[in-house]
Amino acid sequence: MSRPPGALVLSLFDIPKDVQFATGTYQGPTPNPAAAHKSYRPQVKGDAASIRKAAEMMAAAKRPVLYTGGGVINSGPQACQLLRELVQLTGFPITSTLMGLGAYPASGENWLGMLGMHGTYEANMAMHDCDLMVCIGARFDDRITGRTDAFSPNSRKIHIDIDPSSINKTINVDLPIIGDVGHVLEDLVRIWRSSSLKSGEAAAKSWHAQIDAWRARNSLAYKPNQDIIMPQYAVQRLYELTKHRKTYISTEVGQHQMWAAQFYGFEEPNRWLTSGGLGTMGYGLPAAIGAQAAHRDALCIDIAGDASILMNIQEMSTAVQFGLPVKVFILNNQYMGMVRQWQQLLHGNRLSHSYTDSLPDFVKLADAYGGVGLRVDKPHDLDDAIEEMIAVDKPVLFDCRVANLANCFPMIPSGKAHNEMLLPDEANDEAVANAISAEGKSLV
Amino acid sequence: MNAQNVDAPSAYFLAEVSNEIETHTLSLLVDNEPGVLARVIGLFSGRGYNIDSLTVSETEHEKHLSRITIVTTGTPMIIEQIRHQLDRLVPVHRVTDLTVRARRANQDKPLERELALIKVVGDGDKRLEALRLGDAFRATVIDATTDHFVFEITGRTSKIEQFIAIMKPLGLVEVSRTGVAAVQRGPEGL
Ligand SMILES: Cc1ncc(C[n+]2csc(CCOP(=O)(O)OP(=O)(O)O)c2C)c(N)n1
Predict the structure, then answer these.
(1) Domains, chain A, ranges and CATH?
(2) A47 vs A278, A358, B9, B185, CA distance in Å?
(3) Could you read off the pLDDT of A247-266 as tens digits, one per residue?
(4) Which residues from A are below 8 Å from B88, CB to CB?
(5) How far does the centroid of ligand 1 lie from the alpha carbon of residue A155, in Å?
(6) Residues of chain A predicted below pLDDT 70
């Protein structure tokens, strides 16, 4: 590719000067449907015969699993309510993508935890071994499927999605239902009820027993530590100390994001703000500020990494200026942890540009912005500091010093199948602790 | 076991997926505004889909709508994807797979025509033979000197291909083709 020499100017929008100075009468958006978008007419009602067929397939399933995504949340609170009803009626186990967390409560009986690359063993094994997968508002992203040719090889698949281009894009399905999740679930629940359909009980028993066996592997386990704060522990404590409040959690991108997804339990939809597949470091602070502006009475926390937070740190000004007391809970490992983890696991631990020796002093930084800074590096000080953070009515940068070299497990390494997960007890701790030699350290 | 084609009223009645490469003709109704064609073509090149032929012209002047006809090849699954991806573009109002429509109406193909201008240079027997064949193919001569003819020919792509092949040894020097324009047979509109 070639282009003429000189500056390259990228702008999304150019409003000519004469237009900027022109005066006119403002016309707000019209609720008139005729004036709505001309070329976008999504199909919201699902095909009745297909929904009936889906109900029959579900009643006949021996090893079913519900795989739900952000589409349920985007569809609205009603859709989430219907999803809960469907789980209640069918007794099916349910897992969700990163974007779908909160549609079904984390405390729910049938909850398997998140699935995918850093999902739980039980969720991924259920996906792999199921005989019926009901995908609701999710898109078979590569972080979910792992190796596509080994993805859930023996299941029939139902896919409910409003976007026809999502169907058969990466994974072929047996029964697609195009429509809005809320509408489709409404019909599905109604059909299930009116036809008095039932899930097979005997089969359900052995399937749930199998799932319990997988769950017993305790795939989110980590080695507790008396002296150093483990990042997983930090998120767990944050959860325990904030779960009784109206709390909104946003994240940046990295290990902290995955630990937040794994260890913070979401009971309600729309309490979890993360950039998902867009992978946007810098998203969490503005997102938390937005949530706080909309919900003045709520506790809005950005669970951040030390690298990500620096991408939009200037928004501390916004928070201070508009009196929005957001809390930035930085899991400070001095690394771009997710990058380091991949360099360790996939590139023979040849660490490169993932370590930061010269991070700013986050406490002073908070102070400089007119917020409040807190720092903790001992597990036994953590709870008090979190309580203090909650009590402060100002924006807070919370510098939580955590174990530098912790890895995010379990993990489906890229290019592997769901049943080839790397579990924490198999990922040799010593190897992880000694991952970087003195020589390596001077290089990073 | 995988059914497909989400276009059908009820998908699970459908046949098994075929992995055969097929040729389909798609008709798009789009806003006639700058950049639309680039976006449509960009979608094909970005995702590695084929374009065998593409024609475009404004067809509804008051509404500023253009019709784009694209002939593409791929497995039925890929063609479904192409159709849905095109449908997602904001300035695209409607995407119709004319080949699927024709099949559903138990027709072999949609009506498809192409026009070509073909320049042939030569003298003597070759020149006479070119003229005779032009006649047989119902091509009209729209320009000529003692050295050359320009034929105008209309028809299905296969006919045009055939005519061009025949003209090759008779002094073919230049071809310009419009690409395929297509509509569905019968009284129904898009
Ligand atoms: C804007 C942007 N740049 C780069 C990346 C690639 N990336 C993903 S995670 C990551 C490291 C994040 O480090 P940190 O914020 O410290 O989080 P940790 O993994 O240590 O929890 C990077 C660079 C990205 N997702 N977004």
Answers:
(1) 48-215 (3.40.50.1220), 231-401 (3.40.50.970)
(2) 31, 58, 7, 28
(3) 999 999 999 999 999 999 99
(4) 163, 165
(5) 35
(6) 1-12, 32-36, 428-444
